[in-house]
Design brief:
The chain is an alpha/beta fold. It contains 10 helices and 8 strands. The chain has a single domain, classed as TIM Barrel, CATH 3.20.20.70. Helix 4 packs across helix 6. It is globular, with a radius of gyration of 17 Å.
């Protein structure tokens, strides 16, 4: 299983260095991927974690103030990159077309995208969750060649579940994951309030290939419990 840790905008330099030492002590056979904030990327000293970024520029190197390119990420041995997180779609107004460009830039540098998708509470109440997810995935992925497309890791993250403690039922997760898997041959992670208390229930979903963890990513001792139970 993949366990991807999304630190979001957390941890200063010293805190982060101590945090990585604690993560290095976690005992697991699962694949752990760490996505720190950009400025902490050079401070990742590890032999057990794969390195990810939380975002990438849709442009190549050049006059793009405040951006970080895929080429720059590659030079820091970044292997994976989250794209299309709902927080960026919402606050930075990232569009599906821009996310598609980001994915292309990542593949130019052999960095594997972790593509987030998921519906808001209103979209679910309106029964539009599959429509939204299909749109997010098809614009981002359908123009890629098959080899690249299959490498993308998809993360189903219902927006109403992120950071709220609200978890979809296993039936709801299986329904969406199986819908995604009926169209794409990709690994599908689940993200949204997953933790060491609800993992016993979540892990009954056979369609889940791993987890994208936000809040729990900041708690190494709970993470050890989480991977023990996986
Ligand atoms: P959460 O965040 O685990 O804190 O809900 C998940 C995410 O946003 O990737």
């Amino acid at each position: 299983m993949i366990v991807a840790l999304n630190n979001k905008c957390n941890l200063g330099k010293e805190e982060f260095i101590k945090y990585v030492e604690e993560l290095n002590n976690i005992k697991t056979t699962h694949q752990m991927i760490l996505a720190p904030t950009f400025i902490n990327i050079p401070n990742v000293k590890t032999t057990t974690l794969d390195l990810a970024a939380q975002n990438v520029s849709s442009d190549t190197n050049g006059a793009h103030t405040g951006e970080v390119s895929a080429e720059q990420l590659k030079s820091y041995n970044v292997k994976y990159c989250i794209v299309g997180h709902s927080e960026r779609r919402d606050k930075q107004k990232e569009t599906n077309e821009e996310i598609k460009l980001k994915i292309e830039k990542l593949f130019d540098q052999d960095i594997i995208p972790i593509l987030c998708c998921g519906e808001t509470k209103e979209e679910r109440l309106d029964g539009k969750e599959k429509e939204i997810i299909e749109e997010e995935l098809s614009i981002a992925l359908d123009s890629l060649d098959e080899e690249k497309k299959n490498k993308v890791i998809i993360a189903y993250e219902p927006i109403w579940s992120i950071g709220t403690g609200l978890i979809p039922t296993n039936e709801q997760i299986e329904e969406i994951n199986n819908f995604i898997k009926s169209k794409y041959n990709n690994k599908v992670l689940y993200g949204g309030s997953a933790n060491d208390s609800n993992i016993d229930e979540l892990k009954k979903c056979s369609s889940i290939d791993g987890y994208l963890l936000g809040g729990l990513s900041l708690k190494p001792s709970n993470l050890q419990d989480f991977v023990n139970k996986l």
